[in-house]
Design brief:
The complex is a heterodimer of chains A (235) and B (249). The mean pLDDT of chain A is 93. Chain A has one domain: Fumarate reductase/succinate dehydrogenase, transmembrane subunit (3 helical TM bundles of succinate and fumarate reductases). Chain A has helices at residues 13-19, 21-46, 53-62, 75-105, 119-122, 124-142, 157-164, 168-195, 204-230. Chain A is 68% helix and 0% strand. Chain A is an all-alpha fold. Chain B has 249 residues and is α+β, with helices and mostly antiparallel strands. Chain B has 2 domains: 3-109, Ubiquitin-like (UB roll); 117-248, Alpha-helical ferredoxin (Fumarate Reductase Iron-sulfur Protein, Chain B, domain 2, Orthogonal Bundle). Chain B has 8 helices and 7 strands. Chain B has a 5-stranded mixed sheet with strand order 2-1-5-3-4. In chain B, helix 3 (146-156) runs antiparallel to helix 5 (174-185). In chain B, 45% of the residues are buried. The chains are: A mainly alpha (235), B alpha+beta (249).
Chain lengths: 235, 249
């Protein structure tokens, strides 16, 4: 009997990762951590609004010249935007595909129902959708100014932020989204650590605590801005 | 004890099923849950009705055959197998819901019996060591560090009952698969197939139509053998390591 010649080619690492449920979860973890890192920086930058229009606007203009003179104006900014868009798309597409698989795997529900898992865990999917819609609104409101209330002024971010948070719907949309963000990060950070194999019995408490602290700091830091405008601390 | 049971009845795999209500009387608190079902079945047979089909074998909590979702919990309210669940965990006059494991990869065969052969195929994909074993070897022939032996044993406790899949909101078999991978991958006997084992078993798990892990933690709570949730983290680590090594070759 002749031995069969192996004609199958070993699939590429990208293919293996994307086709596996464990691999796709890795894509979610990595893209999530990239976005989380950005959010921490973004939140700290936002707090400059409490030091007056000059400091905040100066910071906003500096963002365009980061990396100069090596980088041309706005190059760094666009680089970050491209990475972020890629992360959002990768995160959303894998979430959609994994969710489809999960729902297919459990077609029949139990007659005797009880709440399963924590609130943060159960709201990952809808929380993610809310955050996705929020990002679209947020960019159209404060980056492009397309849906901005009361005349968007290019190059005057301080005034634009105050305008947005002077409307009741601007405050509501933003605060709801930031609460959703807190819940998402709380389960997401800890989950990402498990997916990447970084969790262990001895490290579990530290990882959960880090997730809680990150979620709280991000939510509180971001919500401080609309609260500041509402209470006229920022005007 | 007098109880009202609501039991999932389904004539065949392709038939529609529904919950049927039965009254059972004369139940002792010392009976196991399966003995209580035996009492119901004796009654049903005497009345000329079809008895409730359910899986069971050893009835001492080590074989993994029994598989009932009792009041929405896999294996019921106690952290053990259904056969080791006793009626003293319930109150006289209770209404108890009894359902089969629910997952696309575990189709119902009849009433409370599901087809768990998907688990066998995951084991066939790599849940073994390729070595002629013969009789038990001399214990000191292959030294195994104590922490590794404990780790392997903790995961070897898995009896493959499928409670993890039944409890998982995504019908995922991650805890089962990770238990076997961690058990063998930590031992010197499992080392030669360390990478292929995790890659092939995870691939088979996906192929069987199990869901993915969202780290809800329901599996580890339901597991009668206490396989921990970090077992899945360990499998993810092994999978990433094996994928990196396969790409480097």
């Amino acid at each position: 009997m002749a031995l069969a010649t192996r004609t199958d080619r070993r699939s590429s690492i990208a293919r293996t990762v994307w086709d596996s449920s464990v691999g796709k979860k890795t894509v979610m973890a990595v893209s999530g951590l990239i976005m989380l890192l950005y959010l921490v920086v973004h939140m700290i930058g936002n707090l400059k609004i409490f030091f007056g229009p000059d400091e905040f606007n100066h910071y906003a203009h500096w963002l365009r010249t980061v990396g100069a003179p090596f980088m041309h104006e706005e190059w760094t900014l666009w680089l970050i935007r491209v990475v972020l868009v890629a992360a959002v798309v990768a995160h959303a597409v894998s979430a959609y595909q994994l969710s489809r698989r999960d729902i297919r795997a459990r077609p029949a529900k139990y007659v005797h129902r009880r709440p399963r898992a924590s609130y943060a865990t159960r709201t990952m999917r809808w929380g993610g959708v809310i955050l996705g819609l929020f990002i679209v609104w947020h960019v159209l409101d404060l980056t492009t100014g397309t849906v901005h209330s009361g005349g968007f002024q290019e190059g005057h971010p301080y005034q634009n932020v105050v305008d947005t948070f002077s409307t009741w719907y601007g405050d509501v949309v933003y605060i709801v989204a930031m609460l959703a963000l807190g819940l998402h990060v709380r389960h997401g950070f800890w989950s990402a650590a498990q997916t990447l194999g970084a969790g262990s019995r001895t490290r579990d408490r530290a990882l959960r605590a880090t997730a809680d602290v990150l979620a709280l700091l991000l939510t509180a830091g971001f919500i401080a801005v609309p609260v500041g405008v509402m209470t006229k601390v920022v005007s | 004890m007098k109880l009202t049971l609501r039991v999932w009845r389904q004539r065949a795999a392709d038939a529609d099923g529904a919950m049927s209500t039965y009254e059972v009387d004369g139940i002792s608190p010392d009976m196991s849950f399966l003995e209580m079902l035996d009492t119901l079945n004796e009654d049903l047979i005497l009345r000329g009705e079809d008895p409730v089909a359910f899986d069971h074998d050893c009835r001492e909590g080590i074989c993994g055959a029994c598989s009932l979702v009792v009041n929405g919990d896999a294996h019921g309210p106690e952290r053990t197998t259904t056969c080791q669940l006793h009626m003293r965990s319930f109150q006289d006059g209770d209404t108890i819901d009894v359902e089969p494991w629910r997952a696309a990869a575990f189709p119902v065969i009849k009433d409370l019996v599901v087809d768990r052969s998907a688990f066998d195929r995951i084991i066939q994909a790599g849940g073994y060591i390729t070595a002629p074993t013969g009789a038990a070897p001399e214990a000191h022939a292959t030294p195994v560090p104590k922490p590794d032996a404990d780790f392997a044993f903790e995961h070897a406790e898995c009896i493959g009952c499928g409670a993890c899949v039944a409890a998982c909101p995504n019908g995922a078999a991650m805890l089962f698969t990770s238990a076997k991978i961690n058990h063998l991958n930590v031992l010197p006997q499992g080392a030669p197939e360390r990478e292929t084992r995790v890659l092939e078993m995870v691939a088979q798990m996906d192929e069987e139509g199990f869901g993915g892990c969202t780290l809800a933690g329901e599996c580890a709570t339901a597991c009668p053998k206490g396989i921990p949730l970090v077992s899945i983290t360990g499998m993810n680590r092994e999978w990433l390591r094996a994928t990196r090594k396969a790409a480097g070759r």
